[in-house]
């Protein structure tokens, strides 16, 4: 999951801070990436749908991916 936050001054409107996060679910038993739980995935899908029409933040970085071996 890729999250980008922007915080603006409440009265003057200038950009005060940004925060960019990359998150993934890790299974504590295997210590490896694992699928999100069904309820969590349902909520993430709802958020993604709600935010789909928003423009990508100009300062947001690239998405990190793991290349699969052939």
Q: Distance between the terminal alpha carbons, to the nearest Å?
A: 25 Å
Total number of helices: 1
What is the strand arrangement across the widest sheet?
A: 1-2
Q: Count of DSSP E strands?
A: 4
Shape: elongated
Mean pLDDT: 90
Gyration radius, in Å: 16 Å
SSE pattern: EEEEH
Main structural class: alpha+beta
Estimate the helix proportion, in percent.
10-25%
Main sheet makeup:
2 strands, antiparallel
Q: Which parts are unreliable, with pLDDT below 50 for 5 consecutive residues or more?
A: none
* Strand content bin: 25-35%
Structural write-up:
The chain is of the alpha+beta class and 70 residues long. It has a domain at 25-54. Helices cover 20% and strands 27% of the residues. The protein is built from one helix and four strands; from the N terminus they run ββββα. It has one helix at 38-51; strands at 2-8, 15-22, 26-27, 32-33. The strands form two sheets. The protein has a two-stranded antiparallel ribbon. Strands 3-4 form a two-stranded antiparallel sheet. A hairpin with a 4-residue loop joins strand 3 and strand 4 (32-33). The chain starts with a strand and ends in a 19-residue tail after the last helix. The mean pLDDT is 90.
